[in-house]
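Hey, can you fold this one?
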Amino acid sequence: MSAGPDIRFDGQVALVTGAGNGLGRAHALELARRGARVAVNDVARTPDGESAAQRVVDEIRALGATSVALDGDVGHEETSTGLVRDTVAALGGLDIVVNNAGHGKPSTAQDTSTELLREILDVHLFGMFWIQREALIHMRERDYGRIVNTSSALGAFGAPDSFTYTVAKAAIVGMTRAASLDNRDRDIRVNALAPVANSGLAASYFATQPQLDTARLHPSYCSPVVAYLAHRSCELHGTTLAAGGGRVARVFTATAPGLADPDLDAESVAAHLDLALALDGMRVLGSSLEQYELLPDFGPASTTNGGRG
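Sure. Predicted structure:
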């Protein structure tokens, strides 16, 4: 395929969380190669006790780019909001946020403890929320910003034994849509990435799937999509893009006209479930308000007995 114009970030500042390894590291390096000054956040340490974030900063500086390390656990509100402020203070502004930090533990819906769910949500959902909120305050003052929140195909489609992770990643899709709709009055884009990469939690899954070719599932294959979503030319709003293995595609929630019956009852739903589930005329809605355009017009309805007369 033919290449488009160069995607550059000269003069711009990016904050990438969870960037000490895997996907976050790949995203930070990609943005730095394209001219961004990058704040690298992670809580992890290397086996010899070194800051994982600092190690990536050293890689970025070796490329001739500017970078700072910001250690800290995004699962704490003060740390998360502080990361935004520290990035602005250290690098002179904030144009791009890549919310990548996260972790997970296998669990099912029936055996997940309240404590485990809270632990996962604190990092995945609340950590992203706190950073996104603080970043949006800064970006709205400057009338510019790009935010990429990391979700997952699990958030859209689910998976067994991944209850907490699935719940958190699904919530991120909704948070991204809502934040995007709240900021259409500025040159701000909030979108989501659903990466497919042999990294982090996914590595253990791929280890049990020998039939899958993981050669092209390196985290760096997802980073070009992050670079596009983070660029000034990106016009997408509240969109989730799946990326990995040389593929990029939209992941979306849609609705269709379905079954229309002025005398709808449980029996008619059961008898015509195929119509209710049909995908003919499927639409991806810009917001929930558009669902009312799909309601059939049966004329005036009685308000007696639940509208059935």
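The two ends are 61 Å apart (CA to CA). Let me know if you want another pass with a different chain boundary.
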